[in-house]
Write a structure and sequence with these properties.
The protein has 141 residues and is α+β, with helices and mostly antiparallel strands. The protein has two helices and eight strands. It folds into two domains: 84 residues, Sandwich (ATP Synthase, domain 1); 46 residues. The longest helix has 24 residues.
C-alpha cells in the first residue's frame, strides 16, 4: 500500500538498480522538455535527454541524479527510469571531471588510427555533455 501523496519510483542503469522507493515527485529531463511526475500522473512513455532528475522523497529530503539518455515510463502509480548512465550530483568531482576532459582531449590529439580516434571522441563527447548539464543547471562546487 502506497503512502498518500506518493508513488513508486525506480531508477535503473545497465549496472544496477540505482534507487527504488516511494517518492512525492520527480522532475524528469525529457527529450522534448522537462516534466514533473506526481501521484496519479497520466501514462507516458518518454525518451530522456542528458539532464538532472530532481527527486523529492519527502518534504525536505531531495536527491539530484544526472542521467544520460534512456527512457521514462509513467503510470498513475509509478515512474520507472531506465538510464544509460547515472551519477549522483553530490558525488560529482568537478576538478576530476575537468582533468578527465583534458586527458580525453590529449588522447584524441594523440590518436594514431581511426578506431582509437573514434573512441577518444566518444569519451570526450560524453564528458562534455556532463559538463554542459552541470553548467546549465548552475551546479558548482
Amino acid at each position: 500500500m502506497l503512502e498518500p501523496g506518493k508513488f513508486r519510483f525506480q531508477l535503473v542503469s545497465p549496472e544496477k538498480m540505482v534507487m527504488t522507493g516511494e517518492v512525492e515527485q520527480v522532475v524528469v529531463p525529457g527529450a522534448e522538455g522537462d516534466f514533473t511526475v506526481l501521484p496519479n500522473h497520466a501514462p507516458v512513455l518518454a525518451s530522456l535527454r542528458p539532464g538532472i532528475l530532481d527527486i523529492t522523497i519527502a518534504k525536505g529530503e531531495e536527491r539530484r541524479i544526472f542521467v544520460r539518455g534512456g527512457f521514462a515510463q509513467v503510470t498513475p502509480e509509478s515512474l520507472t527510469v531506465l538510464a544509460q548512465r547515472t551519477i549522483n550530483v553530490e558525488d560529482l568531482d568537478f576538478g576530476r571531471l575537468e582533468e578527465e576532459i583534458r586527458d580525453a582531449e590529449d588522447d584524441l590529439q594523440d590518436a594514431s588510427d581511426d578506431e582509437t580516434r573514434r573512441k577518444a571522441q566518444d569519451t570526450l563527447d560524453r564528458l562534455k555533455v556532463i559538463q554542459q548539464v552541470i553548467k546549465a543547471e548552475g551546479i558548482s562546487r
